[in-house]
Design brief:
The structure is a single chain. The protein is an alpha+beta fold and 455 residues long. It folds into 2 domains: 66-176, Rieske [2Fe-2S] iron-sulphur domain (Rieske Iron-sulfur Protein); 189-445, Naphthalene 1,2-dioxygenase Alpha Subunit, Chain A, domain 1. It is built from 15 helices and 26 strands. It has a 9-stranded antiparallel β-sheet with strand order 16-22-21-20-19-18-17-26-25, sandwiched between helices. A 4-stranded antiparallel β-sheet has the order 8-7-6-9, with no helix packed on it. β11 and β12 (140-142) form a beta hairpin. α11 (301-312) packs across α12 (314-323). It starts with a strand and ends in a 7-residue tail after the last helix. It holds the Pfam family Rieske.
Length: 455
């Protein structure tokens, strides 16, 4: 593995940059990695180095919990979705026994992929190389010309390989390629309560991820996505202006008043384990009355409000309705719940990332409410949206800029002197503070140096 080196050794370069340079940093050396992360800044090699990216795949995406998909994406026996755990292809499939599994998309004979399409419904997966056939639980049911294998060959010993750990929290399916991970709910910690805010927004306490997906690929690092409350007034200035002109344009109490103006009761929050959120709960409840008038004007809106009040009582119903299924949370390393969507980040290269954006529908509400959720999603996300193309563009500009290495450090210190620890152990700051970025980097470093003695 190559070393990450500074190539600016001249006295002139050192005069330009007052910070010390990082030289001869070996990506697999825990001590060297610690040199790249300070409390308020990180080295841009974390975003640009192919060697560090490969170590991230090994230490994070192949060694910890990763979100695969939602069980509602495979509602019927035989339904499957092809996804990736880091760089490894997997199949999320509901078997004929109704169990949702995560199986490696690899024939046990010569290694060919057995699923060549992104989604579908199958009773059997057939390898097109030599015809080995598996049922939708992964069990090998037949091989061609079996006499060539002799009497000791066992079909049971050659089923599709399952991910070592699979766990489901409220129909959110997670998997790990390592058996050495904590229980999923322990890993999620307080992030689980934020997932609850989405699921419990449904009168039936169920959501559906069945409306399709927006996909985008940008030329930037996977860690750039989301949980930044500092950028909306600049990257999304036109959208912020629209909020101010047309307050009743969509679902949720978020934008009845600007949550990013520095005056709102909004916060950044580090939930631990790299999970973080833009916490707008108090702000949304404060502006719920305006949103409630809007919601009651939508077909089925009054019935929806009454159903949550009857089930949960006035206070919790108000919270759930005001949030409208948007806890605005990032679950490390690859899943976010933002606005009306579940988002998956797929790392492709150090400077290349795919983002999958799945609109969320609520079970138990009127078609008009779910249609409104879809229209609101489309207004901001996807290729014709008002917002997500802005994000992709700025991520690419960041990636290009970080290739300038005279002063290779990036600053994540905003608000470091005013953050505070809450009684529940979470760390909070101003909505524009870089609390999420610092929390992410702390956990990133922990996973990247796992097993090494801490000095």
């Amino acid at each position: 593995m190559e070393h990450i080196c500074s190539h600016f050794d001249s006295p002139q370069a050192n005069a330009i940059s007052p910070v010390r340079f990082v030289r001869n940093v070996h990506a697999a050396d825990p001590a060297a990695l610690r040199e790249l992360v300070d409390p308020g800044r990180v080295h841009s090699a974390l975003y640009t180095s192919p060697e560090i990216f490969e170590l991230e795949i090994e230490k994070i995406f192949h060694s910890s919990w990763v979100y695969v998909g939602h069980a509602s994406e495979v509602p019927v026996a035989g339904d499957f979705r092809v996804r990736r755990l880091g760089t490894q292809p997997v199949i999320m499939v509901r078997g004929h026994d109704r169990v949702v599994r995560v199986l490696m998309n690899r024939c046990r004979h010569r290694g060919a992929a057995v699923c060549e399409v992104e989604a579908g419904r199958e009773k059997f997966f057939r390898c097109w190389f030599h015809g080995w056939t598996y049922d939708n639980t992964g069990k090998l049911v037949s091989v061609t010309d079996p006499e060539g294998y002799g009497p000791s060959f066992s079909l049971d010993d050659h089923s599709l390989t399952a991910a070592p750990r699979v766990a489901v929290y409220r129909d959110f399916v997670f998997a790990s390629l390592s058996s050495d991970v904590p229980p999923l709910e322990e890993y999620l910690g307080q992030a689980a309560q934020m997932i609850d805010l989405l699921v419990d927004a449904s009168p039936d306490r169920e959501i559906e991820v069945s409306a399709g997906v927006h996909k985008t690929v940008y030329n930037g690092n996977w860690k750039l996505v989301g949980m930044d409350g500092y950028h909306p007034h600049y990257v999304h200035a036109s959208v912020v202006s629209m909020w101010q002109r047309q307050a009743d344009s969509g679902i949720g109490a978020t934008h009845r008043a600007d949550p990013f103006d520095g005056k709102a009761k909004t916060f950044t929050r580090d939930l631990g384990h790299g999970h973080a959120m833009l916490d707008m709960r108090e702000h949304r409840v404060e502006h719920f009355s305006d949103y409630e008038k809007f919601l009651r004007g939508v077909t089925g809106g009054a019935e929806y409000i009454n159903a949550l009040h009857a089930r949960d009582g006035a206070d919790h119903a108000k919270l759930l309705l005001a949030i409208a299924g948007d806890p605005h949370i990032g679950v490390f390393p690859n899943m976010q719940i933002i606005n009306n969507q579940i988002r998956i980040m797929v790392p492709l290269e150090a400077g290349r990332t795919e983002v999958l954006m799945f609109p969320v529908l609520l079970k138990g509400v009127s078609p008009e409410i779910n249609t409104m959720r879809l229209r609101q999603h489309e207004s901001f996300y996807g290729p014709a949206g008002a917002g997500s193309p802005d994000d992709a563009e700025i991520f690419e500009r960041v990636q290009r800029g970080m290739n300038a290495q005279v002063d290779p450090w990036i600053d994540i210190s905003r608000g470091i002197g005013r953050e505070k620890v809450e009684l529940d152990g979470t760390i909070i700051g101003h909505i524009s503070d870089e609390v999420p970025q610092r929390g992410q980097m702390r956990y990133w470093l922990k996973l990247m140096t796992k097993g090494a003695e801490i000095e």
